Amino acid sequence: MKNDLLFRWILIPFFLLTFGTSSTTFSAETIKIGIAGAHTGDLASYGLPTVKAAELIANSVNTKGGILGRKIQLIIEDEACKPELATNVATKLVSQKVDAVIGHICSGATKAALRTYKDAEIIVISPSATSPELSLSGQYPNFHRTIAPDDTQARLVADFALKTLKLKKIAVIHDKGDYGKGFAEYAKIFIEKSKDAKVVLYEGITPGAVDYSAIVQKIKYSGADAIVYGGYHPEAASVVQLMRKRNMKTIFISDDGVKDQTFIKVAAVAAEGVYASGPKDTTKNPLAIAAINEHKKAYGTEPGSFYLNAYSAMLAIVNAIDKAKTTEYKAVHKALRNHSIDTPLGKIKFNDRGDAIGVGFSMYQVKNGIYVELK
């Protein structure tokens, strides 16, 4: 009972964002929000938490009167983090006249879909697409994200490898994708700027390959003290397992594509000791506690990766539409930049590039089967 009262007290401020009216009389016209990402396949553990976050907020907002007297309608589309499918999903969501999109999840898929949304003037807020190109280029003014970009993440990883772990010889490996390669390229640049360390191997691997013996052998012969890997958990798990089977003690450091419990589950004992960057731990934030408890109550499980980022993205679009008093693109775009919102990530709003102000990364290490934030 105490937790329930706390939960209700915490949620009141950001679910009753003066949403026009508290009346339960709805307009027949809904506010359509597309939820796009990987909902099946190896990377579903990244996408499904976004679906659940969106469902929880939509249900709560609709129960409390909707936005501008209109219910939220979610249109959920799966693209399995594949760019070719993401383009089709974007076209489908545009044809259904969505007012905004929460997603996509992977950087490559996001990039593939963005031009379609841009041409249709549809706001996109991703909880997890970290490629700097998506915002730095300026060609996608409709794009926003509730996670810091890869250049920020790569600098953190490089500094951790060089200044904290004091490493001298580093192999930088990536999965050739927009996300993994982009992260690796920035990490390589930051490492090479150091006078005390060098990149002894820089190479890409093929996602989904049956055997990674060749790259593991190259890593061994390079004499690397550590690997900095850019990519997702399936390939990372395979490489780490093979390294440990060959008794290689090489330190493994990666990105938020590996900072996922699925990696630990698949890599098993080989995951122990692995380092990865990921969104800062805000689970002691009262709003984060409430959002996590809400997920547990509704679904009976702990939320997965990027859940709090997705929850915050959904809150941001709801708040922006409410402040703009319309779903019209330019007004909502302006509201996202001019109005802050309290979220499980803290108080955020978006800068002129669409990056959320007030979010960042931390380093984590697998200890006793779970990722622990390093202070």
Task: Explain what you see.
With 375 residues, the protein is an alpha/beta fold. It folds into two domains: 2-147 and 282-360, Rossmann fold (3-Layer(aba) Sandwich), CATH 3.40.50.2300; 151-255, Rossmann fold. The protein is 44% helix and 21% strand. It is built from 13 helices and 15 strands. It has helices at 2-15, 44-63, 83-95, 107-119, 133-136, 150-164, 178-192, 213-222, 233-245, 261-267, 286-299, 307-324, 329-338; strands at residues 27-37, 70-78, 100-102, 123-126, 143-145, 169-174, 198-204, 226-230, 251-254, 275-279, 341-343, 346-350, 356-357, 361-367, 370-373. The strands form three sheets. A seven-stranded mixed β-sheet has the order 7-6-8-9-10-14-15, sandwiched between helices. α3 (83-95) packs parallel to α4 and α6 (150-164) packs across α7 (178-192). The radius of gyration is 21 Å and the shape is elongated.
Helical coverage, percent range:
40-55%
Report mean pLDDT, rounded to a whole number. Answer: 92
Element order, helices and strands? Answer: HEHEHEHEHEHEHEHEHEHEHHHEEEEE
CATH class category name of the largest domain: Alpha Beta
Number of domains: 2
CATH superfamily of the largest domain: Response regulator
Low-confidence stretches: 1-25
SS-based structural class? alpha/beta
Give the termini distance in whole angstroms. Answer: 34 Å
The tally of helices reads 13
Tell me the CATH topology of the largest domain. Answer: Rossmann fold
Q: In percent, how much strand structure appears in the residues?
A: 15-25%
